[in-house]
Amino acid sequence: MDRLVAQLGRWSAGRGPLYLLLAERLRQLIDSGQLPPRAALPPDRTLAERLAVGRTTVVAAYDRLRQERKLERHQGRGTWVAPAVLTGWRGAQVAPANPLFLNYLEPLDDILPLACAAPYGPPPELAEAYQRALPKLPGLNSGDIGYHPMGHPALRAALAERHTGRGLPTEPGQILVTTGGQQALALLARLFLEPGDQVLVQAPTYPGALELFREAAALVRTAPTGPDGLDVAAWTRAVATDRPDLAYLNLTHHNPTGSTVSTLARRRIAEVAAEHAVPVIEDDALAGLALDGGEDPPNLATFAPPGVVITVGSLSKVVWGGLRLGWIRASTGQIAQLARIKSIHDLGSAVLEQLAAAELLPALPEIARRRGEQLRERHDHLCAQLAERLPSWRFRPAGGGQCLWVRLPGGDASAYAQVALRHGVAVLPGDSLSMDGSGADHLRIPFTAPPEDLTESVLRLAAAWRAYRRTGHAPAAVHAMVV
C-alpha cells in the first residue's frame, strides 16, 4: 500500500474529474511496468482513505481501467493488473517509488514545490569560480584526456585540505569526487550491500538514502531520532543486537529535524561502531548550515579508526543544487574500490565543475555563513506563519539545516499531502522518510524558499487542512503547540 501511494505521487494535480486523473496515473504505472501483470491493488475503501478521496472515485477509476482490460476485478477476490498487460521493458519496474524524486522528475506548473529542500539560486562566488577555472583547463596538446575517475587532483587536494583544517587529517588519496552526494551514497550502497543485508538508519532520515537501500534489496532497521539528533542508547543496542552490515547517520543539522548530535555522543557512536566492526556512513551534506552561526561538531571519523566511518560531503546544499559535486572521504583501500565502481558508470565527473569547485572551496565558510543567515530568516518566517495559520500543528524549531519536522494533530500525512496537492502545494509526507511507520503523521517542510513563497505555501496548506478536516479524516484540534 505505501509503495503504491508513493508511486501514484501527484496524481491529483491536474484538470478534470478525480477518478479520471487517478485512472490515468494507474494506467501510466501499468503501461510502464511499475505495476506488473497480476499485481494486486488495494480494496476501494482502503485506497480511498489513503488518498483522501471518496470511495466512488476509486471505484470509478478501477472500473474504467477494467473496461480497458488493464485491470481485473472479482467480487470477494479483489482487484489486480490483468495478466495480458505486458510492457516488454523490465527496467521500468525499478523506477523510484519515493515522492521526493517525482518532484524532480515530473515538475508541475502552478504547484509550489514545498517537497524539495534545496537552495534557491547560486551565490555570486560560483560564477567567479568558473571564470577563474576556465584558464586552468588543459591545452590542446596537454595530453590530458579529461577522465579522472577518482576526481581531478586539484579538487581532491583541496577537499583533503578542507577536512584537515576541520580537525580530520586527510590525504588526497582518501578522497573520491562524485557527481553529487546522491551518487556518493549510491556507490557506497553498491560497495557495502548485498540483497538481504541489514542497514541501520535513523528514523526519520534522508529519503534519497532509503531509496538506494531499497534498490539494493537491503533490510532497513531503524533507531529513533531524539531531541538531540539521535537516541544513542537505542542506536547502541541496535548495533550490538542486530550487528548490521552498514549504518547510515546524518548527525549534523539532521534532515529533516534540524538537530545536531553532540561531540560526546559522537565519541560513543564511533566507539560502538569500531567495537562491533560496523561501517558507518556519515552524511555531512548539511555541514556549515547552523542557524545560529555556530561551529559544527567534529566529523564522526575524527573519533574512529581508519575504515570504520566513511564521510559523504556535497556542495548542493550550501552552494547550489545545480553544482553536481560531492565527495567521499574514506580509507585509501575503500576509495580505490569505489573508484572502480564509479568508473563503470561515468568515468569521472566533469572537469570544469571540479576546477570551479576547487576555486570555490576557500570561500565556502563565508558562503555557508551567509546561507545560514538567510535560512535563519526564512526559518523564523515559516515558524511564524505556521503558528498563525495552523496553530494545531506541532514542531520544534530547527537548530540548523533546511527543514522543519511538523506533526499533524491527527490523520494521515500521505492522505493530507494529496489534498494539499489539489490546493497547489507539493509537500513530502513523513512516511517517505521512515521505514518503520513513525512518520505517518508528520510532514517535512523546508524553509529554503523566499518569504513570499513560504507565505503563499502556508496559506495553501491551511486551506488544504480545512478541506481535509471536513472529510472526517482528522480531528478538529484547537490547541496551539510549538515546541
Automatic annotation (TrEMBL):
Keyword set includes Hydrolase: no
Keywords attached to this entry: DNA-binding, Pyridoxal phosphate, Transcription, Transcription regulation
InterPro entries listed in its UniProt record: Aminotransferase_I/II_large, HTH_trans_reg/aminotransferase, PyrdxlP-dep_Trfase, PyrdxlP-dep_Trfase_major, PyrdxlP-dep_Trfase_small, Tscrpt_reg_HTH_GntR, WH-like_DNA-bd_sf, WH_DNA-bd_sf
Domain of life: Bacteria
Gene3D superfamilies per UniProt: Aspartate Aminotransferase, domain 1 (3.90.1150.10), Type I PLP-dependent aspartate aminotransferase-like (Major domain) (3.40.640.10), Winged helix-like DNA-binding domain superfamily/Winged helix DNA-binding domain (1.10.10.10)
Residue span, HTH gntR-type domain: 16-84
Entry annotated with the keyword DNA-binding: yes
SMART domains associated with the record: HTH_GNTR
Pfam families: Aminotran_1_2 (PF00155), GntR (PF00392)
GO molecular function: DNA binding; DNA-binding transcription factor activity; pyridoxal phosphate binding
Family: In the C-terminal section; belongs to the class-I pyridoxal-phosphate-dependent aminotransferase family.
Name used for this protein in its record: DNA-binding transcriptional MocR family regulator
Organism for this UniProt entry: Crossiella cryophila
